[in-house]
Amino acid sequence: MPTLFDPISFGSIKAASRIVMAPLTRARAGKDAVPTPLMAEYYGQRASAGLIISEAVGISRQGLGWAYATGIWNDEQVKGWKAVTDVVHEKGGKIVCQLWHMGRMVHSSVTGEQPVAPSPSTAPGHIHTYEGKASYEEARALRLDEIPGVVESYVKAARNAMKAGFDGVQIHSANGYLLDEFLRDGTNHRADAYGGSVENRLRLLREVTEAVIGEVGAEHVGVRFSPNGEVQGTVDSNPEAVFIPAAKMLNDLGVAWLELREASPASTYGVATEQPKLSPEIRKVFTRPLVLNQEYTRDEALKAVAEGRADAISFGRLYISNPDLVRRLKDDLPFQEDDMETRYGPIGAKGYTDYPFAR
Ligand SMILES: Cc1cc2nc3c(=O)[nH]c(=O)nc-3n(C[C@H](O)[C@H](O)[C@H](O)COP(=O)(O)O)c2cc1C
């Protein structure tokens, strides 16, 4: 069995180790959703990761409702991201772009329109807008004739990501955002070809994945799921029945790698209502690299890879506060704690690019 520190290929990406930086929204851009030079510095500091998954990046104005997050639907944004990927590549790293349509988890003060979802619903909790925190608003159901346009915005974003120099893309189908809302019966009550049976609920993910593969090639495409329990108000009555066929479908489509965020009721971030249990089953049907996430310590990460439960491990919060995480894991050095107050912008370098490297 390989170790956490051995190289691995995620499709065409040759990663130097199985240590992956999980996607982390940090909201350090401007209102134009264009990446800034500070972001290039931040990602450059973390280039020793085997693979960096970028923060979630909006595929369209409709799909990006988080204040000060970035997008990849126009040329300015592509240019901003190119500066980021250049720095990562100069330092020998690899980086993919997480493609994000937030579905009902947006605010109209940011997107300029009512949120969209599979069916009318309102997410619980609060969102970051330019005016501060706000309650979620009721989403309307996407019309059947609007769905091809949504698929096309994923394709355009994937094309733009490759233009911006990313090594590939990750389709964000986790955490209660649009694609996850379509997968699960708690948020998908449609009576048309995109709702009801599991096959129908998988349809949008299938169409998006096929179209993105058609644009950039399967060797450049990964996907993220968060299969267990409720996440941001999105839940399924029988997750096994959805996520195992979904993983099998991605395998059949040729998707190069799959990442699972498995929170638990005891999680210290984004608690899920059920214990993780699907990854062993998903591993049987998804034969390419499987990346596991959430709450991994050094020992647990080493063990999961050594025992063959995962091919790689992605680290979220540890990457906020330990830019040199690979070295700290290798040499068993202590980790720095991340400061919760500075996780999200708009606050510039503080808690972003100022976490020191180990000496
Ligand atoms: C500040 C912050 C921002 C996050 N942003 C994203 C994101 O943009 N996309 C995503 O899929 N997950 C996001 N997550 C979830 C992380 O990728 C990861 O699943 C989570 O931190 C659990 O892993 P950990 O226990 O290693 O921190 C975010 C988490 C945090 C703490």
UniProtKB/TrEMBL annotation:
This is Alkene reductase. The lineage of its organism: Bacteria, Pseudomonadati, Pseudomonadota, Alphaproteobacteria, Acetobacterales. InterPro entries: Aldolase_TIM (IPR013785), OxRdtase_FMN_N (IPR001155), Oye-like (IPR045247). PANTHER family: NADH OXIDOREDUCTASE-RELATED (PTHR22893), NADPH DEHYDROGENASE 2-RELATED (PTHR22893:SF91). CDD domains: OYE_like_FMN. SUPFAM superfamilies: FMN-linked oxidoreductases. Residues 4-334 form the NADH:flavin oxidoreductase/NADH oxidase N-terminal domain. It holds the Pfam family Oxidored_FMN. It comes from the Bacteria.
